[in-house]
Amino acid sequence: MPKAGSSTSKLLSSELLCVFCNEYEDEKRYGKLISNDGIAAHNFCLLFSSGLAQKGEDNEGLDGFLIEDILKECKRCNKLKCSFCKVKGGSIGCGNSWCKKSYHYGCGKDNGAMFTYHGNYSSYCKKHSLVQEDLPAEERKTLKPVDTCYICYENLNTTISPTTILAPCCTRAWYHRQCIEDMAYSAGLHYFKCPLCNNVDEWQAEMLRIGIYIPDRDASWELVPGAYNSLLQPNLECVADVCICPQGRSEDETDGEWELIMCETCGCQAVHTQCGKLKKKDKEWLCSMCRGTTSGSSKENEVPHEPETLRSENKRQSSSSNSVPPKKTRPSKSRSKKKALAKGVKTLDNYFTVTKQSSTGLTVSSDSQFNARFQDG
After folding, report:
1. Where are the beta strands (DSSP E) in 57-134?
2. How far apart are CA 31 and CA 362, in angstroms?
3. Cα 210 to Cα 128: distance, rounded to the nearest angstrom
4. What is the pTM for the complete model shown?
5. For residue 10, which phi and psi values (nearest 5 degrees)?
6. Which of 80, 107, 83 is nearest to 91 (CA)?
7. Which of 93, 97, 118, 98 is nearest to 108 (CA)?
8. Three-state DSSP class for residue 328
9. CA dist., res. 5 & res. 30, Å (int)
10. How far apart are the C-alpha atoms of 23 and 17, rounded to whole Å?
């Protein structure tokens, strides 16, 4: 089986042309343009040429395709006209044994031909290309004639065609074929999955079957040089209210009094060992944000030059969160009964007092007034 994308061959400049398709270098469309001994060819043109086999090692010829075999294939395909552009050099033939069409790699891509980037690297013209299984008739009746691609969010026709793809895992999820090809080329083998349900196995198997090229490499965003340097080496400064370092807040010396100690919880802020009055043996520090959410933090971890307003606010919040509101207790039933009994006795005494006042001809409104007048009389 041919081995695609070997890194042992020397890459060329865009001035050279492929001996099969006579096109310049375009890695996304044709694969890498590689050369040896003055012979240049695209990787995909080599892999899909019908009369070419990979007989050498990876470091021989062009990724294992020997130079003498490439020259023989050029002589063979120069006798064949491309079925689409009518120019000689159509080295790729349709995988159907009854079909006599031959074409350049680029001409086949532009005219609906399918290329399977695995196994024997076979190609099929538009008429004989492998198609997806359509939805059942009952589901097809309820399907909208026009739906939305879940990658570019533009409209597409919900019919099986060389330009549309039906997801094998998500029901009724349609995509443009070009959107899937761009996504696969960018994500690579390790990150290429269904955009909706994140299915990997079923999704990749179907995409390979219908001719989607999935490069065996890491994702393109993982290959950018220095893409994550800002995360690995954060640009920190001393956040003390008054930094006493002579070299400034950005100074960071190793194992010294001006070493920047990051917050042990979030790692987003830092303080100098001297500015934070931290112990040399136990360099632990919490920023003001993490102190408000972390319990059990001691005053040794605080920045000594923190503003008074912020410190009082944090103290007020911590005291309010730690204080327990007084518990409301309901009086017991026995106590309530005693109060009601005492109230009834007092009411009864007032009744007898008023009765006594009526018999003597006095008009009083309370027992105390009655006693005062009775003594005067």
Report:
1. 92-93, 102-103, 114-115, 123-124
2. 122
3. 12
4. 0.59
5. -85, 130
6. 80
7. 93
8. coil
9. 11
10. 5
Give the integer Cα–Cα distance in Å for 61 and 6. Answer: 12
The letter for the amino acid at 302 is E
Dump pLDDT digits (tens) for 83-97. Answer: 999 999 999 999 998
Give the residues of the chain that fall short of pLDDT 50.
1-14, 297-300, 304-311, 314, 318, 321, 345, 348, 351-377
pLDDT digits (tens, 9 = 90+) for 289-309: 888 765 554 444 555 444 444
Q: How far is CA 172 from each of CA 21, 158, 166, 168, rounded to the nearest angstrom? A: 38, 9, 7, 9
Distance CA 112, CA 96 (A): 15
Burial class of residue 331, CB neighbours in 10 A (0-12, 13-18, 19+): exposed
Cα 25–chain centre separation: 33
SS3 211: coil
What are the beta bridge partners of residue 81?
88
